[in-house]
């Protein structure tokens, strides 16, 4: 009869002891979190991190009553003052603030906004320092904190391209394509009367107010081109680098279907086929582009380049001349025309060197000599114009000098003297 009361008494003591331990642990968690808060207030972020680690070891990060404060303080501890914060700490702070918000902490949104601003500013500095991978990581984190800001996803992918991390670039460019990201922006600008510089404004209202105040003039509103073409082109180029041309073409077709009539996409498609060395397809698409924009000199210049590579010299010259007609200052078109003309010389010289000494061969030699001289005379004016634009181009001057000697032009000696001066002889 005395045995049962003893068992009951033992159970009561055991339960009381367990409850006491739970209360002690909960008190310790709160104490560490409170210590972290005090350390943050005094600017001792290292001590705050240590207190939070101790609280985590006791399960504070999973305690429904405590984790709101735990994650909020963690965000503050890892963000610190926001100065000279590592990428890893900024990303930790961002995730902590997000967890605090999910746990019901409304103040965490301000922390998230601070972290996002620091991430973006840090990414800008990373780009300047050519730390492209760090810039990309910061921009991805910023995007994940607010997925409405898809522009940061675009900049992250671009930074991965610069870092030559094409696999990650492909992941984020593909995500942008799936989101039908356009990236076109409306820019509101005006000229500062004092500095004469064109400045941008966040919206039309603010721009118009500054113009109305009299400190700014010449308001302008411009819409930047869609980035869909660039994204599709980069996806295609990455696939081409992986020797997956079918995927490159499929990605381009998808982009065109999602953005019908986008001229930038059509140019991207032409560039893709150019990289694939399918120059006939490239030329076909370029003709479509020119039909839509017949006064664009760059289009004719690009067609001149591809047509020359396909071996059609006369047509290439025609395209280059059209580019110059639209833009007389296009120096590259001038020297490329000269190069195409001079490229006709090789087969002539080869035939001349293969001739014998018969009367027939001598006659043919004289004919070929005349053809060669005609080539020089056709190329010379374009080189002359090019040198006016680029007077320090030694190779262009040397080429023109040699042409002058071949055609007995007295200006050859003048160029020879100039060339010696430039080379310090």
UniProtKB/TrEMBL annotation:
InterPro entries: TPR-like_helical_dom_sf, TPR_rpt. It comes from Gangjinia marincola. Keywords: TPR repeat. Gene3D superfamilies: Tetratricopeptide repeat domain (1.25.40.10). The keyword Transmembrane helix does not apply. This is Tetratricopeptide repeat protein. It comes from the Bacteria. Pfam families: TPR_1, TPR_8. TPR repeats lie at residues 297-330.
